Amino acid sequence: MHGQGEGAAQPSDTLDTGLACLVMLARFHSVAASAEQLAHEYVAEGQRFSRPEILLAAKQLKLKTKALRTKPERLPQTPLPAIACADDGSLFIIARVDQEKTLIHDPRLQRPIVLSAEELKARWSGELILIQSESSQAGEVSRFDFSSLLTSILRHWKFPATIEKVLVHHGTTTTRCCSRDY
């Protein structure tokens, strides 16, 4: 581990890292998720959340998912945060990638860790599960353009004249007079 990982609590082997990662990313996307309810619905007693269960549970939570295999060099172009599969089968979250450093969150350690590129390559299998909320996708589609500005200007074009009259004349009678125009 990187210098920040030394002296930390030991990883917990009893924690279901797949379930923990899914719940964390659901909450990141402002989606309410109960670990107990998801575990009850999608896995048998004693089993752990794996990729198929994560994909099904995320769909129920109205989250868009995509499982893929990629290389560490492609991570800066990948939408993050995402769930990553470690070589030992556990799951963790890749939160951010900056040049040669990667910020991850391992649910077993219950805190973020900064890894170098070499440490990430040694730990990560290359598998990712991308998770995005449907509302964030709708926000990308409805980006600001001048037609929305023009619509607002036309809708409220009388308002500045009303405010100017009230401020200049220091009276509410002007407001009453101008409010009849609306």
Short description:
By secondary structure, the chain is an alpha+beta fold. 41% of the residues lie in helices and 23% in strands. A six-stranded antiparallel beta sheet has the order 1-6-2-3-4-5.
**Widest β-sheet, arrangement of strands:** 1-6-2-3-4-5
What radius of gyration results from the CA coordinates? 25 Å
Q: Briefly note the CATH topology name of the largest domain.
A: Cathepsin B, Chain A
CATH architecture of the largest domain: Alpha-Beta Complex
**Class by SSE composition:** alpha+beta
Shape: elongated
Q: Terminal Cα separation, in Å?
A: 66 Å
Identify the CATH homologous superfamily of the largest domain.
Cysteine proteinases
Question: What would you say this structure looks like, in words?
Answer:
The chain is α+β, with helices and mostly antiparallel strands and 182 residues long. The protein folds into two domains: 3-139, Cysteine proteinases (Cathepsin B, Chain A, Alpha-Beta Complex); 144-179, no CATH class. Helix content is 41%, strand content 23%. It has eight helices and six strands; from the N terminus they run αααβββββαβαααα. The chain has a six-stranded antiparallel β-sheet with strand order 1-6-2-3-4-5. The N and C termini lie far apart (66 Å). 22% of the residues are buried. Mean pLDDT is 78; it is low at 1-10 and 137-142.
